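Dear colleague,

As promised, here are the two records you asked about, laid out in our usual form so they can be pasted straight into your sheet.

NAME FIELD: protein one
SEQUENCE, THEN STRUCTURE:
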Amino acid sequence: MSDAALCTTGAFPGPTRSAEPTAVRRGPLLITALWAAAGGAAICLAPLAAVWRMSWPYGLLFLALGATQLGTGAAALARPAPRRLLLAATAALVVVTFWALTRLAGVLPGPDPWMPGNSVIGFTDYVCAALEGIAAAGLAGAAVLRRRPRRRARRAMAAVAIAPLTLVVLLGSFLGVAAAGDGLAGAGLPADAAKPSNLPAGRRSTVEYCRPDGVPLAMDLYMPSTAARTGRPMPVALYVHGGGTILGDRKTTGLGAALANHEGALFTPLRHRLNARGFVVASIDYRMPPGAPWPASIQDAKCAVRFLRAHAVALGIDAGRIGAWGSSGGGQLASLLGLAGPGAGFDAGQYLDESSAVQAVVDMFGPADLNDFDDAPPFIRLCLAIGVGDSAGTRRAMSPDTYVSAGAPPFLVLHGDRDEDVFPRHSFGLVARLRAAGVPATLIEVHGTGHTLDTPGQTPSPRQLTDTVTAFFVNALG
């Protein structure tokens, strides 16, 4: 029999092709990993416009990273072959490596490309890196494990076991995308930012007030109407938003506004009242930890004051009449503006020939001693751990109590008697120290409210407090 016949009859096995790689079952591990990859990609893409305006090379890189992630993830979902999964895992690992080089090693040039995405939550980039790490590990694991025969009961047990991770990935993705893009409407400085001159009366204008390390920071300026102006240079009330040191932004709508709790700081009614009395009201974004570690936030707030003085003539304001107010973490920063002088070392960046001192401070339930939070609720301690860390020295440097001395401007301190986030003892202690140093200080304990000043039925009422704060600024700044 010929060799050909033998091959035809199957006596001798002919050459065979290697089998195609076994496809991976679309189980809970793979789906969770792909969702994590999609979430990380979306966080890269959401602030793309803001990143592009800050640095177009980084904008191109973010676009490439996000598009590559989505493309490899879609290919892996359509046909989950091991090679495709490993390619998608590699794409996720590239994002993690880029994040580590910029955030942890700091070896790449230019401004921090993650900062626009951190304008609402100071650790959005950490969320992105965590999602990408989960994606890389999950996709690689799915590729290596491949398909293995399992009984239905075992598959159900695997799905239950991975459910907590799936929930974390879903929450992290939704929160990260909303924060990075601030509702997909763009984060940080808008493209149509105004110049600090000839701003229209009775309207809000957004300007860039400082650019620390190449990162543009936004300030909203609410100008009084023409009828409210006296013809003299106008006083200024600078508002510093709260949010547990790591949350919030200057905007009045969106996720950042909700996290900053502007209502609790009476921002809208105070802005209207102050504008009606001829005040310019300024509201700022500032860099937040852990993306921008301390003392970035107070450096930015001080730079905002120097900006106002440097552009006093163009803005029509009186450089000698600037007050500050804020709530919670914003109250802490406002107090530091009044207490921490040049010797504290917080003046850095632009306009250093101008003073960063303010002439009046309204502190709304702000912490006075960052080392006094051992009995605070778990969420508050978590925010401090993320944004501040455990260093007693750093917490002391962030505490207004540390800088109380004679010569500070007058203070008005307001605190709810039911506040369990920042206990009232912070404000009582700060006012006692201010008075002992000879600083004019008024304390108002608001009954029937917690970590806010807009609770129905509280006494004094929100309207009465608005009147009190307005009168304080008018009396202190003239």
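NAME FIELD: protein two
SEQUENCE, THEN STRUCTURE:
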Amino acid sequence: MPKKSFVTSLPDKAGAFLQASRIVAKHQGNIIRVSYNKAVDLHMLFLEVEAAEESLCKIEQSLADIGYIHSGLVETRVIQIAVKIPDQPGAVLPVLEVLNRSNINISYLNSCAEGEPCQYFRLGLLIEDPRIIKTLLDEISGIYPVDIVECDSSEENLDNTVFYIRLANEMKTLLNLNNAQTISFITESNRILQALQTGGENAGKVFAYIRRFAHFVSSYRGESYKTDIQTLSAGDDLTVYSIQPPCGSNTYVLKTPTELVLIDTGYAAYAQESLKELQQLFPDWNTLSKRLLITHADVDHCGLLASLEDVRIIVNRKSCESFQRQIEGLPDDREKTELHLGYSRISQIISGYTPPDITKLEVLDTGTPEEHENLLRIGTVKIGNYEFTVYEGSGGHLRGEMVYACAMAGLVFTGDLLVNIGGFSKERAEFNSLAPFLMKSVNVDSAKATAMRKQVIALIEEISRISNKPCVVCGGHGPLSVMRDGMLINL
């Protein structure tokens, strides 16, 4: 059954939600998620409705007819002023008349007479047209002395009615979003807030983390995009390049005399920067044949799948199915819970992610069981003179997770099943702290992820014994490393 999220703007009066619910019921809709918190936003209600497509259209139109649909995001500014008004009856009326003529809403009003000849009225003004600010202030100052007060959204007196609009406008500018994307961003932010508040998290902290996420990714675009690159000779005619961006997954490039094989590609936000770097790193980029493998189908590992040309993309069946659900607008394998769904969707918006064209994907495996508890061999990939065994995990981090291992080369590509957290730079550590807070866990099933990590470590130790040298661990994030006494040590 189709689903649709509505961002509605309710009047602050009894029966407002009842009226919206009656409209949904009238058109045979089922409300599957509702979120309203007067302490965070006085008017905004988030509704997710399940109904037939025709019914969803009728519900949307009916909500719009009564003025409930938040169809546009007005560029609202909040100005705080302190007006010195004589402490006498009716003295505030001229100021209110000015605001009324300019159609200005007051977000809060605070004043207290303390036995002085004058008192300061502190007003929060919601101004939709910034062009009138100067005229408005000039008119009020012609009546009474006015001071401009810095706007502080953390102040208890500030009416949070405008919070979502301010967040939306900030993200719209920062990420260059259209209106539909902006509405989706605040809807999914609310989804995260609703889930985390159930566990006792503070709304201000939740939104601070979301803002940090968006600003962090955006701040490294263009000339600010700097990566760390490690190079490793893995044997005759095989060189491994580990490209480590400020945020998002590593990109690995395995170079042979005739081919480049990429494993994972980071965020789509850095597609232009990444391609430019690859072309500089490999002057023969345009002439060599190229293949692309992934360790799993998370957004931060698959950003370039939709934009790289003349590259064979090889995936397993489960990852391919997840991409197909993304294309159809259905929850993918990361989006099984409200927290993971909200985080995944804002990740897609923040990074500009587009799912790959399914028709261009080559599926590696057939007959792989849907459920299995072990690191399961599902195929092989030949890279130059080296054969890599492809293993599929049980889905602890994400359904369809894969590991690539070659005893001959002494290499294991572990994805996010084993990550060199201890090798993170300060900025990478900061960024990688955001997802665990916003999702509570980066794993779909933490118990399975722990079991898989132990099996991956056992595989690394086995390869080390076979090759009689430390196996090089190429994790989804962080620098190259080797295992010593059960610990990852930077290479």
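A couple of things worth noting about protein two: Residues 77-149 form a domain with the VC0802-like fold (CATH 3.30.2130.10). Confidence is low (pLDDT under 50) at residues 152-161.

Best,
R.
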